[in-house]
């Protein structure tokens, strides 16, 4: 009874309702929330504390940063049910928060593109030095299977293209960085991969027609994405019914230097967090293989997720 009372009381405030709606779009830090809501930092922090004490909001700390999100949807407690009801009701309210969220996300996307423009020249070396030898890609390629059109999201310098091209009928590598794609183009030329095509474009507006892909691969890219739920919805658009999405991601970690050296937006993820977003974006049969790489020193672990697009 006490927790029900606390959760309902916590939502009885216009700014806290705005906060809940903003956080339904993904994690934000206090500085970003201050900008979006146009409220002082101490006011935002106070509202966040009330929502978090009521079990409606969770915080993830990484180094000097704290990112706030809605409470993970895995529990079916009162606060989770209250949250989904509120978010549904609030989604039609227009108060300018949406435009300010977009401004914050655009700034994050810009930071990513500047990072990869500068990192492209020696990305392969930097990735191997930071992440170590990949221990999950073989299993990931096995899960992609054979035939069909496969899209490599955030193909970067194209490390996966050769293996994908051997098994698939057609491969499309997508990346927003012309500098990274230049390296991938060289790989495609050298590897003589006639069934492989590269397209410049952002995950937020994929350069794909509706249902063009039978499978998509996101190998260590989601932690660079400003708004993961939106990108998952766009991935759904590009997938054929019953199409599959394979994700390899870093486990949530708090090694700030590691995170910054990779130009990442997020210090990894909890698989349950991605599972909730996948479910909301229309995916089913979500399977997770944790520990594809165990954490080691400053290197976070890697997990694999496989999801199938629900048939409408
Ligand atoms: C970690 S790197 C390359 C990962 C690559 N899949 C691999 O296995 O080496 C991430 C890539 O995602 C691209 N990227 C990041 N955010 C993007 C976005 N919003 N749209 C398209 N590409 C993006 C970057 O340009 C970069 O090439």
Ligand set: S-adenosylmethionine
**Which sheet architecture does the biggest sheet show?**
7 strands, mixed
Q: Uncertain regions: pLDDT < 50 for 5+ in a row?
A: none
Structural classification: alpha/beta
3D shape: globular
CATH architecture of the largest domain: 3-Layer(aba) Sandwich
Structural domain count: 2
Number of DSSP helices?
13
**Cross-sheet strand order for the largest sheet:** 6-5-4-7-8-10-9
What series of H and E elements makes up the topology?
HHEHHEEHHHHEHEHEEHEHHEE
CATH level 1 class label of the largest domain: Alpha Beta
What is the CATH topology of the largest domain?
Rossmann fold
Give Rg in angstroms. 20 Å
What do we call the CATH homologous superfamily of the largest domain? Vaccinia Virus protein VP39
Question: How would you describe the overall organization of this protein?
Answer:
With 312 residues, this protein is α/β, with parallel strands linked by helices. The chain folds into 2 domains: 94 residues, Arc Repressor Mutant, subunit A, CATH 1.10.10.10; 190 residues, Vaccinia Virus protein VP39 (Rossmann fold), CATH 3.40.50.150. Helix content is 46%, strand content 22%. It is built from 13 helices and 10 strands. A 7-stranded mixed beta sheet has the order 6-5-4-7-8-10-9, sandwiched between helices. It has a 3-stranded antiparallel beta sheet with strand order 1-3-2. Helix 10 links the parallel strand 5 and strand 6. The mean pLDDT is 89. S-adenosylmethionine binds next to helix 6.
